[in-house]
């Protein structure tokens, strides 16, 4: 039963890594099982819930829908890379302060998607925030405090703009 | 309504950021799939047919290290058989793996064990189940009707549980009143926690014990249930609920998969793990709320509801859930139908009907989202029929005098049913809304407002469960508290949180009593080796019951510390205050609690006569229960062309008594409302006539996203009653109980010009359009 493996070289959270994976292994499984980065969670494994969202080459990606071997040479960022040592990122801190999480299972996906959004040149309005983050599911919070947390982080980072409708 | 005088309010009532969160926002939580990495994988082959006879199971050639386990291999395992002592309950046996018949699509039939998930899935694909299909019964009304196929031979009418109640004066009231009858249908739900079910069982060769880490809400109960099925000493099993990614009731019950994991680990002296995928969760974990109610309200000319007569059918699925039994839905509806309303005369006939569908189990609110949907729709329809304003008809019927005894003998403690509604009317600016609604209608836009007034039975202990005649009566909670020699406080609790923030709120309660910072308090939960027997987390109970026990245990610890301080400071025990980690007496003398702790353990001599040799205390709390309450308001716009509903504003005015951490309370309410919005508009598990499930992915079963759920405003009233030691009431379920009625009342209000009345949820765009079409066809 030994399936042939392929060596994948990529950068994860700034570190060069290598993993020997079977070609059918998803990128999410590669991160979790081969690189022991279990902060990336699997909620549906069919690309709907967004819990496994990571940033690959500057774009948000559902890591359950990508193979590990497709990450050859890629720059990958996961939830484990958000904090700077003991210092949480402004977004992580906002999720904490605004009670933007309850069970915490969907949180890494929301954090990665929102981190990506906050790094884009366009300012964040409530409309854009809801439009982008509506691609992820949370079952605990009712989203209200996720919106408040991302809004607070955007304001702190100077990325917030009142929407035209407001 | 304010806090009690003379009581320092340092920790209670503060929005302390949760102690749980730093690890979770770093991705350093420890969920069961994280623990399972590297274990041998278990994959279940599940029945592809809803009813049938197993003729044979063909296995492929198995590589070394791969096991294929069938019902014949586990014939020695006892089935899961929850029991109920009355209500004509028929005990049905759920096999761990079936040997002769299958009863629903998704039932586990074969377990494959392989070194990796991939290999296990490959083998599972190659296992062939030779099952001769039989006629399945899926639909609730058909299953309850005459001539239906029989699911279990011991229940020839498919009725597994049946409750009746009828007050003596009901018939007279029905005869002399205006009868408003509605026919209410709730379609099947799936709680859909973001983390699916899963377990990792590992055998320890040195001790002969098995540890099961599992994503569950009731670890102690699970341990007893598994040990019973396997016939192993319970003491040789440790169950741990690590970080649990939501549960909402779905993770309360004992499932065959967990029994099998422990059996495998023990028999093969190994480590095995099963992590459910989303499809399995949608088709084969617990479902809920497939119910049909016929409700007859008897109103007098003033709109006072003098009687209520209800027929309840609940689809319980193929087996009865353990430990609550399948009575949980129909009997809760029977007991709690009157909600916050005065109902003098009451009758119910409630039946739980078995079908060839997935097993029903409690889901946040259990039957009450359906009950409040029915009652609040009834109020609207009655108001219209009797030409009374819908708010006014509620005013005339809400309970305002407390305590109030319901027709089913529950006692409603002091609450604010009327006050929350009046406040909600004010916050929503009802007159202003009516003006906007009129203006919008003139532009062909349909806005609507919907109200829903509910009460939520919370924090109930063993008396309430005993009243249902359950063989197993959950309810009490025990907290064992200890100050370590270094001065930290450890509290071991039987409750088992999974997102509710209990580590923070219980720490606040203990900090208040003992006078230490929350940062120095550790709440230890979810591990049967480290915590006292308890019932886990469900039924909006943990803050009230485990919190109450925490307060009592911490109070005892505080007393002990004061006694020790009095000895060491040579003062009066009654004059010692504990504050900010210090024990102080009038006149300025003080000693740190750390010093007291070190002295008690390490220099026991002088004070052991007064306080013994440790700083351990414990308390058990088993309350009668209390009722929190709320009024919800939804403002919607319905697109009459597409049937789509957009929620423009959502307001909750709730009363949970004393709030320990208001931010966490708001989060519970908001999360419940979002699930209620899903229930009202989107979520439905659909079977075809043969019992195949058509909604096996999140593309078909659709939980709401940030695009559907608006900002949820929460306002608080605080009725402090003596029903619980904390003066707190539970809030975990109220959001999901009230929201469906508020949303669907709003849709009906929006579609008033069409005369549309909806009695089925979810009110999907298809159903709304169908109702508009039907209304247009019948109107001249």
Spatial strand sequence of the major β-sheet of chain B: 3-5-1-12-9-10-11
Overall residue-averaged pLDDT value of chain A: 96
What name is given to the CATH topology of the largest domain in chain A? Ubiquitin-like (UB roll)
Distance from first to last alpha carbon of chain A: 61 Å
CATH class term of the largest domain in chain B: Alpha Beta
The gyration radius over C-alpha positions of chain A equals 16 Å
Task: Give the assembly state of these chains.
Answer: heterodimer
* Contiguous runs where pLDDT drops below 50 for at least 5 residues of chain B: 1-9
Organism (chain A): Rhodovarius crocodyli
Keywords (chain A): 2Fe-2S, Iron, Iron-sulfur, Metal-binding, Oxidoreductase
Protein name (chain A): (2Fe-2S)-binding protein
GO molecular function (chain A): 2 iron, 2 sulfur cluster binding; metal ion binding; oxidoreductase activity
Describe this structure as you would to a colleague.
The complex is a heterodimer of chains A (166) and B (780). By secondary structure, chain A is α+β, with helices and mostly antiparallel strands. Chain A is built from five helices and five strands. A five-stranded mixed sheet of chain A has the order 2-1-5-3-4, sandwiched between helices. In chain A, a hairpin with a 2-residue loop joins strand 1 and strand 2 (15-21). Chain A is elongated. By secondary structure, chain B is of the alpha+beta class. Chain B folds into three domains: 21-29 and 476-621, Aldehyde oxidase/xanthine dehydrogenase, molybdopterin binding domain (Aldehyde Oxidoreductase, domain 4, 2-Layer Sandwich), CATH 3.30.365.10; 32-134 and 197-275, Aldehyde Oxidoreductase, domain 3, CATH 3.90.1170.50; 368-459 and 625-778, 2-Layer Sandwich (Aldehyde Oxidoreductase, domain 4). Chain B is built from 21 helices and 29 strands. In chain B, strand 10 (209-214), helix 6 (219-230) and strand 11 form a beta-alpha-beta unit. In chain B, helix 10 packs parallel to helix 20. Chain B is globular, with a radius of gyration of 27 Å. The N and C termini of chain B lie far apart (55 Å). At the A-B interface, helix 2, helix 3, helix 4 and helix 5 of A face helix 1 and helix 19 of B.
């Amino acid at each position: 039963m030994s399936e042939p493996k392929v060596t994948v070289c990529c950068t994860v959270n700034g570190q060069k890594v290598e993993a020997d994976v079977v070609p059918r292994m998803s990128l999410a499984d590669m991160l979790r099982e081969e690189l022991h980065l279990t902060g990336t969670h699997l909620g549906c494994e069919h690309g709907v819930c967004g819990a496994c969202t990571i940033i690959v080459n500057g774009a948000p990606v559902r890591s359950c829908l990508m193979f590990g071997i497709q990450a050859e040479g890629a720059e990958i960022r996961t939830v484990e890379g958000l904090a700077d040592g003991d210092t949480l990122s402004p977004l992580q801190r906002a999720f904490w302060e605004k009670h933007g999480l309850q069970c915490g299972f969907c949180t890494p996906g929301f954090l990665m998607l929102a981190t990506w959004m906050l790094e884009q040149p366009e300012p964040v309005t409530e409309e854009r925030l809801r439009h982008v983050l509506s691609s992820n599911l949370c079952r605990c919070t009712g989203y209200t405090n996720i919106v408040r947390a991302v809004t607070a982080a955007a304001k702190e980072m100077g990325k917030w703009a009142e929407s035209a409708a407001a | 309504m304010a806090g009690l005088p003379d009581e320092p309010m340092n920790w209670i009532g503060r929005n302390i950021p949760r102690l749980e969160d730093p690890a979770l926002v770093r991705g350093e939580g420890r969920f069961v799939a994280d623990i399972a990495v590297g274990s041998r994988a278990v994959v279940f082959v599940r029945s592809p047919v809803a009813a049938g006879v197993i003729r044979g199971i063909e296995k492929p050639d198995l590589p070394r290290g791969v096991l294929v386990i069938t019902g014949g291999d586990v014939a020695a395992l006892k089935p899961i058989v929850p029991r109920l002592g009355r209500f004509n309950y028929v005990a049905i046996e759920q096999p761990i793996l079936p040997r002769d018949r299958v009863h629903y699509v998704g039932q586990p039939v074969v377990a494959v064990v392989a070194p990796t998930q991939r290999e296990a899935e490959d083998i599972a694909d190659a296992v062939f189940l030779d099952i001769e299909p039989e006629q399945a019964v899926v639909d609730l009304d058909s299953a309850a009707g005459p001539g239906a196929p029989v699911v279990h031979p011991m229940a020839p009418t498919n009725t597994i549980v049946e409750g009746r109640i009828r007050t003596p004066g009901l018939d007279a009231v029905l005869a002399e009143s205006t009868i408003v009858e509605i026919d209410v249908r709730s379609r099947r739900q799936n709680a859909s926690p973001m983390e699916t079910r899963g377990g990792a069982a590992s055998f320890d060769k040195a001790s002969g014990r098995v540890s099961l880490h599992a994503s569950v809400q009731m670890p102690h109960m699970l341990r007893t249930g598994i040990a019973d099925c396997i016939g192993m000493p319970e003491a040789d099993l440790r169950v741990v609920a690590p970080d649990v990614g939501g549960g909402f009731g779905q993770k309360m019950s004992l499932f065959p998969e967990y029994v099998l994991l422990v059996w495998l680990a023990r028999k093969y002296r190994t480590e095995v793990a099963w992590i459910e995928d989303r499809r399995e969760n949608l088709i084969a974990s617990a479902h809920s709320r497939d119910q049909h109610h016929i409700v007859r309200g008897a109103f007098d000319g003033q709109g006072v509801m003098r009687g209520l007569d209800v027929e309840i059918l609940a689809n319980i699925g193929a087996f009865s859930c353990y430990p609550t039994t399948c009575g949980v839905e129909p009997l809760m509806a029977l007991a709690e139908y009157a909600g916050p309303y005065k109902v003098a005369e009451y009758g119910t006939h409630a039946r739980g009907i078995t079908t060839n569908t997935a097993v029903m189990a409690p889901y946040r609110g259990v039957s009450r989202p359906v009950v409040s949907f029915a009652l609040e729709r009834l109020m609207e329809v009655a108001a219209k029929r009797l030409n009374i304003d819908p708010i006014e008809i509620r005013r005339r019927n809400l309970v305002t005098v407390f305590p109030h005894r319901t027709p089913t003998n529950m006692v409603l403690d002091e609450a604010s049913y009327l006050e929350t509604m009046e406040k909600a009317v004010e916050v929503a600016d009802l007159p202003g809304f009516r003006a906007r609604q009129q203006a919008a209608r003139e532009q062909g836009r349909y806005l609507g407002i919907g109200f829903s007034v509910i009460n939520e039975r919370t924090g109930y202990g063993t008396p309430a469960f005993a009243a249902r005649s359950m063989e197993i009566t959950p309810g009490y909670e025990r907290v064992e508290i200890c100050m370590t020699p270094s001065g930290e406080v450890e509290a071991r609790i039987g409750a088992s949180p999974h997102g509710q923030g209990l580590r923070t709120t219980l720490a606040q309660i203990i900090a208040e009593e003992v006078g230490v910072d929350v940062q120095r308090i550790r709440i230890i939960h979810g591990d049967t080796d480290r915590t006292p027997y308890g019932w886990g987390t469900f039924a909006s109970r943990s803050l009230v019951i485990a919190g109450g026990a925490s307060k009592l245990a911490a109070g005892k610890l505080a007393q002990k510390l004061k006694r020790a301080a009095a000895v060491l400071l040579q003062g009066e025990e009654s004059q010692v205050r504990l504050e900010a980690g210090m024990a102080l007496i009038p006149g300025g003398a003080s000693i740190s609690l750390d010093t007291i702790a070190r002295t008690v353990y390490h220099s026991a001599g002088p004070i052991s006569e007064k306080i013994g040799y440790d700083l351990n205390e414990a308390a058990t709390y088993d309350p009668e229960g209390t009722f929190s309450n709320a009024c919800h308001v939804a403002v919607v716009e319905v697109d009459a062309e597409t049937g789509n509903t957009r929620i423009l504003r959502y307001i909750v005015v709730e009363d949970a008594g004393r709030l320990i951490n208001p931010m966490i309370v708001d989060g519970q309410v908001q999360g419940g409302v979002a699930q209620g919005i899903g229930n009202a508009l989107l979520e439905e598990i659909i079977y075809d006539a043969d019992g195949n499930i058509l909604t096996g992915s999140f593309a078909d079963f659709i939980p709401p996203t940030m695009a559907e759920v608006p900002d949820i405003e929460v306002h608080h009233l605080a009725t402090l009653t003596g029903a619980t030691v904390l003066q707190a009431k539970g809030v975990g379920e109220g959001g999901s109980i009230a929201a469906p009625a508020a949303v669907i009342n709003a849709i009906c209000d929006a579609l008033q010009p069409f005369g549309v009345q909806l009695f089925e949820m979810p009110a999907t765009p298809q159903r709304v359009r169908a109702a508009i079409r039907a209304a247009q066809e019948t109107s001249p």
